[in-house]
Structure prediction request, 329 residues.
Amino acid sequence: MAAPALIFDVHEDRPTTAVSWVTLIRDTAAAQRSTLIDDFHRWAQPTVRRITAGILREMRLDRNTWFDDIESSTAEAMFLLVIEVVEDRTSIDELVSFEALLTYRARSKAREFLDSSGGLNQASGQVGLKRRVKEMRWTLNHLTQTTGRVPSAQEVVEATNARMEEKRKDFRRQGMECSLEDYAYLEMGPAASLENTPEPSVADPNENPAPLHAAERLDFIAMIIARCAQHSEILAQVAEVWLDPATQSAYDGHPSASDVAPLVGLAPQTCRTKIALVREYARQVLKDFYGITGVEETSEGPFAPNPEPTISNGRVSGFRPRAVTDPVL
Prediction:
């Protein structure tokens, strides 16, 4: 079967950004737009998959069940956004960040799809860890100001849930019931109290730690990305791509720095250094939230005892985290 025809000659320079692609599609004759949009769709597949993986993590959806549907929804959102620009309903000058706008549109379409599918125990429309963390942060600041002390994790969770119950018709169904697990994502500095956070269900680090439970692996990835985001946005993007199960599946394991670099717009050497930092943050998350120190990937599972990892000249020794070993993600 012959490969699909491309509108570009092999020697012709192709657009390198989403905005330049959309601009080219808008300025192309209508008869050629269909082929050009197909080319753009193929070029944008890594971005669509990355956005899809982020939506699945945020909404805590099973990858095997929902990835294809959410990916199709994201691709549809991208197509509709391109059509808006072509028909001058959205100005190309307003597309400061095509990916950011697409992420917003794709998240909205995913919520609409999930709410209408009837396949979830709770409505997805308001489900989102970021939303719950935002509400807990407001509660923390309010209680600190009114009581003159930093409240405990349990107090913040209970006060937030009480406020949500007053504000919303069914805050549980809307995904706004906060928990101590959600509180762990709230990075509040050394003054915050996490003493009431329940013990994670992993083995004693002095024994042979078992792989993290599937639900904990989802949280593990999200916490690494959140910790990297505190450092910089680009580091969070590198973490998201490098830890993305879809990317790992495509490369049969963690992709190399050379594979990740073009997806995040960095030079391979710079990307290699960023990945080393992601590994270090992953080690910190394991230590802070799971009580595991010194881990490496082995044939027995992703987390086994190992000497304390170190970073030297941008390289990490003694630590090679892996998000999952099964297809749950």
